[in-house]
Amino acid sequence: xxxxxxxxVNIPLDFDAEEAAAIKAREKAYFQELQKAGTWxxxxxxxxxxxxxxIFDVESNTVLHDTLMGLPLYPFMTMTITPLCRHPSSLHxxxx
Amino acid sequence: xxxxxxxxVNIPLDFDAEEAAAIKAREKAYFQELQKAGTWxxxxxxxxxxxxxxIFDVESNTVLHDTLMGLPLYPFMTMTITPLCRHPSSLHxxxx
Amino acid sequence: xxxxxxxxVNIPLDFDAEEAAAIKAREKAYFQELQKAGTWxxxxxxxxxxxxxxIFDVESNTVLHDTLMGLPLYPFMTMTITPLCRHPSSLHxxxx
Amino acid sequence: xxxxxxxxVNIPLDFDAEEAAAIKAREKAYFQELQKAGTWxxxxxxxxxxxxxxIFDVESNTVLHDTLMGLPLYPFMTMTITPLCRHPSSLHxxxx
Amino acid sequence: xxxxxxxxVNIPLDFDAEEAAAIKAREKAYFQELQKAGTWxxxxxxxxxxxxxxIFDVESNTVLHDTLMGLPLYPFMTMTITPLCRHPSSLHxxxx
Amino acid sequence: xxxxxxxxVNIPLDFDAEEAAAIKAREKAYFQELQKAGTWxxxxxxxxxxxxxxIFDVESNTVLHDTLMGLPLYPFMTMTITPLCRHPSSLHxxxx
Amino acid sequence: xxxxxxxxVNIPLDFDAEEAAAIKAREKAYFQELQKAGTWxxxxxxxxxxxxxxIFDVESNTVLHDTLMGLPLYPFMTMTITPLCRHPSSLHxxxx
Amino acid sequence: xxxxxxxxVNIPLDFDAEEAAAIKAREKAYFQELQKAGTWxxxxxxxxxxxxxxIFDVESNTVLHDTLMGLPLYPFMTMTITPLCRHPSSLHxxxx
Amino acid sequence: xxxxxxxxVNIPLDFDAEEAAAIKAREKAYFQELQKAGTWxxxxxxxxxxxxxxIFDVESNTVLHDTLMGLPLYPFMTMTITPLCRHPSSLHxxxx
Amino acid sequence: xxxxxxxxVNIPLDFDAEEAAAIKAREKAYFQELQKAGTWxxxxxxxxxxxxxxIFDVESNTVLHDTLMGLPLYPFMTMTITPLCRHPSSLHxxxx
Lengths: 96, 96, 96, 96, 96, 96, 96, 96, 96, 96
Prior knowledge:
The structure is a homodecamer of 96-residue chains. Chain A is built from 2 helices and 4 strands, in the order E-H-E-E-H-E. Chain A starts with a strand and ends in a 10-residue tail after the last strand. Chain A has a 4-stranded antiparallel beta sheet. With 96 residues, chain A is α+β, with helices and mostly antiparallel strands. Chain A has helices at 17-37, 61-69, and strands at residues 2-9, 40-46, 51-57, 77-86. The B-I interface holds B 3, 5, 12, 15, 61, 64-65, 68-69, 75-76, 79, 81 and I 13, 45-49. Strand 2 of chain G pairs antiparallel with strand 4 of chain H.
């Protein structure tokens, strides 16, 4: 089941730089694990912004909620969630 | 080069049903041609809405503009365009 | 899987009254069938508005999309969809 | 008498973690007492957000106001209040 | 129980003038009946606009809904509903 | 001459509690003096919010400005001002 | 007593051109009468828009309401009303 | 050449009171110099707000920019700039 | 003196196609005359939209207003006007 | 390939003045290097604001992203990115 998740990251100007780097490293590891598992199907940077557009493939709303709440950068993010489904005109068998 | 395009379709209540069906058929053919060509990389329906989220892969801004202007449903659409780029954390070679 | 759906209905002033009544009757029958099936778990009127807040319980995003698209009043509605999940503090076994 | 209450929680990044945990524990106890009493009829998490949608059943506007003002997390919340009423098409005797 | 109701009236430019006058006359009669009954406690025009701010005193959300739906001008109105309660600093016994 | 004034109060989480209590006490005294004088004709709490809707009766715009600027809580408030006038359908002699 | 009134004019594309010209002529005459009387103290066009910013000097809210309602172009206008008062730093005796 | 400038002033609650008073004194002197020179043609307070509406008469966009940037309170202000021109219906020779 | 003008064009679906084509031809001629004269310094299409961003170089606000009002497509346009000036860091002598 | 980038700069009131001056100096040098290279084709100040409108000419979305992320003032900026293309009516060979 697919969802578009748009994430805007905002780290305060005076936040400790070392701690921020550590959180970003954990975020990257967490992301890559989910990417390999096929949960985090796509990610793109929005040009010029510290924001991304992502497509998640999950079994349920609850799994999506728990996955997003586990993001190390979650406390610094503003999230927009849009449930998606397959488009009837698509020639592909799955909705990738 | 990737762009997210969000399209909201709004056909007036009193628009001729047969003409609408013909336009939608042309739209579907136009879409599938671009999907096969790899230009229209992804398309998803937004749940509960007559709207889609699409990812386009084009050579330039101008190609994207001309492609969108050619959509048979274009006069009934509201468009939002967001330029994208590869995310540095991604494990994939391309930005699909 | 639960979703909040907010529906605002707007029938144009000059729309044929008899046709509107027929559509509303079909809408009511469609709603009651889904209510009996447990798909349309809750519905409330927003006070003073021709709008409702509803809770749907569906198997997937696609089922929700198809269900909403089948609403006889759909062409007159503006929809807002919010995916929900169980609250961890709740004492109840299901998320009703 | 039913009201939809949407609560967005925002605890500042630098707020003391222990104090936050204590407030959340008091919030949970306060919530469960109201849930048992039937005042706080429903609660759902909004997926991906630190927000909930709740349905309250109260005798009057004043009781709702006092109940919400008593929430331990109230100073960290943004509230939206929507008065509801039974939908005429519903097959159920009460508006649950 | 008190509610603030803000009503914006918008009659289309090409609406039949005689019919509009008849609806407004019915609206005035309906309003005055409710004013005498104490249900429609206050009404003020917003300066320069075809809008009013009103205070309703009703037994329940449902009574408010039915009262507003009965307004002859309802199909031409946009409504905003705000539940109110007595202010603790007030020196008056009722919330007038 | 009547004005609707909507006041939203926002005291920062870390503001000194004792000082806040002192300001609120001065606010209450200031309010009650104006209520007795008939300047602050009505006040209602918005349910669930730290906000009120008030009706002021003043001689001029300038008097209203000076009255509002004198509110002890003014630095913590966001204000919306709407000039009002008597509604032509009202059966009452004054616009109360 | 001074008010800023911002007026946006929107005449439908298919409105009868002759009737529009007649209404505009009446509007101009109405305006010039009020300008001579000192009620309509200032008027400026917003560059590139069919909109103006005006300053009215009236005895009361009610006079302003009746004056604006009398505008021949009123049914085509969207209005924003802002009550003003003299600025304490001004060197001038009146608030012109 | 005329411009409407709307200025909203927001001095943080914890800003040093003495420094604020000194900045306001410099602001007043700066304003009065420009008022005498005819550059700052009009200023009005917005009722109930720490905001003003002003009309500037300047030779060019650049002069307006430099004038506004020189305001001692500029770092505390949010600005909205609207270019104006003479209204064709006005009976006055200049656009005052 | 430079201004950014953003123009969104919206021709109704049922507008006569031949008349639209004639207006667009006049618009193009009008534009090219102003481009040659140096008044309409720049024009760019916004990708995917029937909108442009333009830079005008004019002597005064009034000249800009009259120029824009003369656009054959003006009745179909929504305009946003932003006054600009030279950036102090620019290495160029003029603000092109 | 052209993009409009609108940048709003907001340096906190209590940010160290010397550090701010150093960042602005680096920003100016970075800008001028890009201006000479033809990447940063145009820049204009928005009158009365600490904001600019810029036109970038880049090979790809990714180059634009990296260029903007390299701005010394980036952490203090809010960005809006609009992809542009040549206007078909333009008489010029390139889209400058």
